[in-house]
Design a protein that fits this description.
about 180 residues; mainly beta; Jelly Rolls; 12 strands
Length: about 180
């Protein structure tokens, strides 16, 4: 159930959900940007640590509104073969691809900026308190792979697409050393 249903008229997203093909990463970012026009930021409920709400799920794409009132680190994860486009409506979010054998590369995005990742990417997002983002995935998410270092080995744990990704503290620490 959408907690902000008074603010978000889900029928407005029908035109975006009605694609006849799987979207490219750039198209996902374009759709996220377009979906942002239908969100009334001033009327969002801003209680607790935050949450995520499904805006649409169709044959070729799905979109989520993420609202984080506290800090939120997704940990390193993949999207199970789906590409993603992200648009920042409010606040700041940082994206980091999993880089092996080089320095960490974190890119920060603010309100009005967007980015995308290919279906093969492993990345993490770090949302500052107050960040509001829209994420469009194509094809729709079937699972999310969560990454962490266990006993010195990189491990992937598959999780459902509608649960929060846990942080990856051991993997992050290994990348810093």
């Amino acid at each position: 159930m959408v907690q902000n249903e008074v603010v978000i008229d889900l029928t407005r997203f029908d035109v975006l959900a009605d694609s006849d093909h799987d979207l490219s990463p750039e198209e996902c970012a374009d759709f996220a940007r377009a979906a942002a026009a239908f969100i009334d930021l001033f009327s969002l409920e801003r209680e607790g640590e935050g949450r995520f709400e499904l805006l649409w799920r169709a044959e070729h794409s799905e979109a989520w509104l993420n609202m984080w009132w506290g800090p939120r680190d997704t940990g390193f994860h993949d999207h199970g073969g789906s590409c993603v486009g992200v648009y920042v409506l409010e606040g700041r979010a940082r994206a980091e691809a999993l880089i092996v054998g080089g320095g960490r590369r974190v890119v920060e995005y603010g309100a009005g900026e967007s980015f995308s990742s290919p279906a093969t990417a492993i990345h993490r997002m770090d949302h500052e308190p107050g960040a509001v983002t829209i994420h469009v995935y194509s094809p729709p998410l079937a699972a999310i792979g969560h990454y962490e270092v266990v006993d010195g080995e990189l491990r992937r744990h598959a999780g459902p697409p509608d649960e929060m990704s846990p942080p990856s503290p051991s993997l992050s620490a290994a990348l810093d050393s």
